[in-house]
Amino acid sequence: MLSKKNIKKTIVLFTFRRKKAEFLLALFLIASLPLAAGEISDTDVLNAVSSTNLISDSKKLTRSRSGDTDTKVTTEVMYKHDGDVGYYYREIYKPTTTNETVDLPPAAIPRKVNIISGSDELPKHPPVKIKPKIKTTARIKTEKTTPKITPYVYKETFSVATTYPDQTAPLLSDEIGVRDSIEPFNRAMFNVDDFLFVYLISPIGKGYNFIIPRYFRSGISRMDYNIEMPKRSLNNLFQAKWKGAGISFSRFLVNSTIGLAGFYDPAKEWFGWEKYDEDFGQTLAVWGVNPGGYFYFPLLGSHTYRDFGGSLVDMALDPRNALIITPVYGVTVFMKFNNITLRINAIEQLKESYYDTYSLKRDFWYMKRTADIAK
Amino acid sequence: MTHFKLLIFSLVIMSSLLFGVTVKLSGFSDQGPYVDTLRYVSLKVKDWDFFKDGDKREIKVLKNSDNELIYKLWLQDKPAPLIVIIPGLGGNYASIAPTALAEIFFNKGSSVLIMSDPFSWQFLLSASSRITPGFTPVDARDTYNALYLILNELKKEYGARFFPKKILLGYSLGALNTLFIADIDSKEKKINFDRFVALSPPVNLLYGLNQLDEFYDIWRKWPVSKIEQTKNKAVYLFLKPSASGTNSLPVTSNEAKFAIGYNFRNVLEETIMAIHSEKDFGILKMPSDSVSRQKLEKEIERFTYKDYVNTFLRTSYSDVFGKNFSIMELGKKASLPAIQNTLLTNPKIRIIHTTDDFLLTDYDRKWLKNIMGDRMLFLNHGGHLGYFNNSDAQKYIVKAIKGAKFKKRVSTKNTAVNTDIIIAEKQLIDDFNKTVDNN
User: Fold this and answer.
1) Quick one: B277 and B345 in the same domain?
2) φ, ψ for residue B239 (rounded to 5)?
3) CB distance from B406 to chain A under 8 Å?
4) Which of A160, A342, B245, B335 is positioned for an S-S bond with B310, CB 3.0–4.6 A?
């Protein structure tokens, strides 16, 4: 719309006050304006300007030309019109004989209007849709109009009775939080783990990621998951989750054969069989064993005492551990490493997001763990 | 039948008068403002490597601090508009939602820079002049100073022509800061942003914080089993990216309120922990300790947002306002009405909000509409930021970045109001003015 960039024209204002002849001359000038204009109608510009609210006039006016009797004064005027806010330049000839800078109050702005085409680069601009009114065109409201600003009323009041939080109110963490009674040890172990991640796992993993495409890494991760079928099926059975046990076993059969040893997951893709993850820690929870305290161990991650005991049983249920030969252990370690490489970027992003990553990991792990047990 | 039509027509007109220019989001399953807000978590990056692909940079902002402010930058390989994102409460350059927004904007051809929100621990340790965030004029000033240094550095490195336009976009508390920065920038013009886009800014900051406190406290009325159940639901919603606008979420409004309050309370706890590690204001009894923090965590857990304002902010700003200044006065200076002249006259500002954001009252919505006119848009659903993952909403955000105005549109075929855009009439403003006059 109308803006400083678009309007490269100059509006020149002359004074006319008393004589009717001068008024007629002004009308003639205005009527002839469209001839001199480019794509945008000058009358429209005048109309637009005349019907706008002049939000502010710059007070400091500078004189750019000094003659014997007239001085040309330029000012930038901000206007508001039809929701748009923009600027135009106004030049005024004011009789004077001195060459000093003047401060011209808005009320003293002369009242005759003329438009002179500016540079050759007139902007391509749709005409401003304003009903032409010659009378209002000739008589520009010169007084400064400030739009009505309705003050905001603050209805709510916030009383703060004490200068310190309520010490008697129960805490959410006491109700559902994890008990971290050996926190210094856990934090130390967490820092060791963090060190290993930053200086060992992450650099090697990034190199591995660079060489092995995500497609293969995801496939290997699915194979690792597939091998752990006995753990899931049996723990579903231990918890009397018959459907989960059946689907876990069926998934194993389908994915081990059609899915090429679990590299693909046709059980989910073709048959829609979702995973039913259960472990012995969850089984113990269902049997009513309390979780005990929280502890962290490098490379093994977060556990409660109950879950750590459960994970020992799960290890026994892993068929890879039945073969006590070094190459199989090597394969297991490789698969676990492969799983981590799929999440390196996400882990790094989370580490950067939170101030206390240990607290975050502990609390979120425990929340997820209790949610898994409850499902 | 005619009466029925008239009734429907009247209802449409009345709703339009209430909310101004409002657009309907397609593919959005409305479950009320609180449940809809949870859809915010469904905004995730499509490419997990996107974060890694960004350039992580550091800049020294505070002379007397060893910490450097980290920001993330994704540059196009040719000159392109630069969109600077300020996340919501506690969000920083590595948070998931701003990264996902950055991915959207980057894929549309813009360069993107993510700043940390002044309330985030990362910002307050490296760029906050007062360490205690929450007083918007100072937070915005700190952010502006940091941005000035960052953009100057980029200008030196790539030249001004590499960023033909500079756009500042903030959401939630980041949006409030964005608008205060617009106020500063319009006066000082040191950066001279081309556009300011504010998504869901709170109007009255204290009201917004009070809402968050009330949401969190809902659990106090529940038995432990109910708390556990709600927490479990929230965990799965967070982990399941499919919780998008098209799905129905299995939570009630109260459960959603608690999940929102819990999330924001965690942010506050993290912020206080970071403040305490940097400076002891004598408010907390437990010392800062990097080995054992459980007791300190429990002490901090007792702080509501109002407590934070009344203790940390009060202490931190006592040298400016005196010891017995009113919290309401501080809140007024930190809320949007404090910069209403800028909001009214600055043509570079665009605001997008929803008609059911719980951080605003109906009065706030009317006030915003009155001030902003066609430079603001209301989405018909989404609660607080729950519209982020809706494709329609994303289109409107992009339009706002491009500087579109949200004008009324009347169907030329019928005299009825266009169903897509409901018209705001002048009557709205008159009614509003009358309400204010009566008050």
Assistant:
1) no
2) -80, -20
3) no
4) A160
Instruction: Identify whether A24 is part of a domain.
Output: yes
Rounded to whole angstroms, how far apart are CA atoms A263 and A258? Answer: 10
The number of folded domains in chain A is: 2
Tokens of B26: 């397609």
**Do residues B352 and B397 lie in contact, with contact meaning Cβ atoms separated by under 8 Å?**
yes
CA distance B429 to chain A (A): 10
Min distance B298 CA to chain A CA atoms (Å): 8
Indicate whether B189 belongs to any domain. Answer: yes
> The domain containing residue A36 runs over which residues?
10-138
Q: Please state the φ and ψ torsions of residue B195, each to the nearest 5 degrees.
A: -155, 145
> Which pLDDT tens digit goes with each residue over A118-153?
333 333 444 444 444 444 443 444 444 555 666 888
In three-state secondary structure terms, A6 is coil
Mean pLDDT of A184-200: 95
- CB B302 to CB A166 under 8 A? yes
Given CB atoms, is A272 within the 8 Å cutoff of chain B?
no
**What are the beta bridge partners of residue A296?**
A302
Q: Is A287 on the interface with B (CB under 8 A)?
A: no
Cross-chain Cβ contact B207/A156 below 8 Å: yes
Could you read off the pLDDT of B165-180 as tens digits, one per residue? 999 999 999 999 999 9
Please indicate, yes or no, whether residues A366 and A227 belong to a single structural domain of this protein.
yes
Predicted confidence (pLDDT) at residue A248 exceeds the cutoff of 60: yes
* Binary contact (B345, A359; C-beta < 8 A): no
Q: Are residues A93 and A218 in the same domain?
A: no
Alpha helices in B20-87 (DSSP H): 33-38, 50-53
Which pLDDT tens digit goes with each residue over A56-98? 333 333 334 444 445 555 555 555 555 555 555 555 555 544 4
- Of B305, B331, B357, which marks where a domain is finished? B331
Range(s) of the domain holding residue B85: 15-203+340-432
**Cα-to-chain-centroid distance, residue A288:** 44
Instruction: Count CB atoms within 10 A of the CB of residue B372.
Output: 21
Is residue A185 within 8 angstroms of chain B, CB to CB? no
B363: CATH: 3.40.50.1820
Task: Report yes or no: A25 at the B interface, CB cutoff 8 Å.
Answer: no
For residue B438, tell me if it sits in a domain: no
Chain B residue numbers with beta carbons less than 8 Å from the beta carbon of A350 are: 94
How confident is the model over B188-227, as pLDDT tens digits? 999 999 999 999 999 999 999 999 999 999 999 999 889 9
The ipTM is 0.80
Q: Give the list of residues 6+ apart from residue B76 with CB closer than 8 angstroms, or none.
A: B106, B109, B110, B111
Does the beta-carbon distance from B93 to A352 stay under 8 Å? yes
Enumerate the residues of chain B whose CB falls inside 8 A of the CB of residue A156. Answer: 204, 206-207, 210
Question: Do residue A83 and residue B301 have CB atoms under 8 angstroms apart?
Answer: no
Residues B152 and B300 in one domain: no
What's residue B236's pLDDT? 81
* Residue that finishes a domain, picked among B303, B331, B359: B331
Strands A294-297 and A301-304, sheet pairing: antiparallel
Cα B112–Cα B114–Cα B118 angle in degrees, nearest 5: 150
* A125 and A219 housed in the same domain: no
Percent of chain A at pLDDT exceeding 90: 39
Both A111 and A239 in one domain: the answer is: no
Q: Does A150 touch chain B (CB under 8 A)?
A: yes
**Which member of A83, A150, A352 has the closest CB to residue B405?**
A83
**Which chain A residues are within 8 Å of B267, Cβ to Cβ?**
none
Closest partner residue to B337 among A152, A156, A353, by Cβ? A152
Give the helix, strand, coil percentages of chain A, each rounded to 5. 50, 15, 40
- Rounded Cα distance between B147 and B149, Å, is 5
Q: Compute the Cα dihedral for B397, B402, B403, B404 and give only its sign.
A: negative
